[in-house]
Design goal:
Layout: H1 2-11, H2 15-24, H3 28-37, H4 41-78
Length: 86
């Protein structure tokens, strides 16, 4: 139980805040232009905002997965838990 708490504690520290920051920042020019064209809000969100926000989100998630994997190796070493082999 302690290794799971250790991994969860260090993983959750900045994940939500960084994802929200990356969703809000990219594509403001795209959204402004789409609104100026008179497109529906649903089309603006799906085709312009989420499409442009997906690239940094995927990058951040990939980096966080690497950090979690590295943290799992360190946690297994510290708590002397061998990795599971399927």
């Amino acid at each position: 139980m302690l290794p799971a708490i250790t991994l969860g504690r260090f993983k959750r520290r900045s994940s939500c805040a960084s994802r929200v920051r990356h969703v809000r920042s990219p594509g403001s020019d795209y959204v402004r232009t789409a609104r100026a064209k008179g497109l529906k809000e649903r089309v603006i969100i799906i085709k312009h905002a989420l499409k442009n926000a997906a690239i940094p989100i995927v990058t951040v998630i990939g980096l966080q997965f690497g950090i979690l994997l590295g943290g799992a190796v360190v946690t297994e070493t510290v708590f002397a838990i061998p990795g599971t082999v399927v």
